[in-house]
Design brief:
Layout lengths: L3 E7 L3 H12 L6 E7 L6 H11 L3 E5 L6 H10 L5 E4 L5 E2 L3 H11 L3 E12 L4 E3 L7 E3 L3 H8 L8 E4 H7 L10 H12 L1 E14 L1 H29 L4 H28 L3 H13 L5 H13 L1 H14 L2 H15 L4 H7 L3
Helix pairs in contact: 1-2, 5-7, 6-7, 8-9, 9-10, 9-11, 10-11
Length: about 350
Amino acid sequence: MHTITTILPTYRRPHLLERAIQSVLNQTYKNLEIQVYDNNSCDDTEKVVRALADKDERVRYFCQKSNIGAFENFQFGLRRVQTAFFSFLSDDDVLLPGFYEEAVRQLQGMPTCGFACTQVIRIDARGRITGRPDSLPVGVFEPPKGFKTLIDNHIPTWTGILFRTEVRDTIGILNQATGYAADQDFTLRAAARFSFCSLPIPGAIFSLDTAAAYRHANRHLIDLRHDIDNWCQSVRSDYGVSRDLAELATKKIRHRYRYQLYRAATQWALESDFPAVEKACLILAELGETKLSKLKLLANTTRYVPPFRWVLLARDRIRNTSAYKKFKATKRAAKYGELIKYENSYRQFE
């Protein structure tokens, strides 16, 4: 039976880390090791991990001598993998119990596949599903068809992907030049060289702290501009795909970034974060965005027409009432159906 390494970098979130580790220990596939890489937290992180390691020898702990940054901590863990399979897990996410077993079963039956991807459920800080998981077509995809499938649909979140270590040995480690996009770059590079299988099951839960996401979205999305340029350059020069396919990929990558930045800038305008809106408009103009006039109108209305701002504040107060929350809960249950059960799966680790 092949062993799986769970690469689990962490920094100053011991309460969430314990939940993440427990979700791996709860896997129905038992031949695994959890490599926790503490980015020099200097808090209760070591204590939490040591307590779990005393009960289960599959939990391993390593502490960096100094904070080397989140990217280098992931990179460090990837370099040290010595088992047949590996996956990445952030300290605020969790795996669903059957993920490894089903992924290994598929990969063992398909020796040419470099990785198996599952659906990932997205949940906010209150444990509520934020939307239906992005789904790829189910099946086995060989390059270049698999590469184009990801470009035409979406690049799956790597929390729900099990990789063969052969993938790392072939395509290399994470590309530092791609920065915030390094995870998607790694998966797309793998799809350019390897077949993969897409499974119709949820394998993991991705936790999104919406408040924290808003605080960091400004820097993240604006800084991502240079990472996107570097990623597109890498697609053209390093992926080994045809010129036409590389151009299609870079076009789709830039389009998705432009869409995300436009949506974020709309939210920044509503929140009166006008410096961020101005920076976003400059980038969007460079990328050829055609709806800048609407975004600027929204920002100027929020800034110079106080009653409009008051309406937004009143809307937020209404949304915080118990009656509205009850209405939304009923609506969410109808919208997400059986997916609601994964909220309970997420909360059971708390």
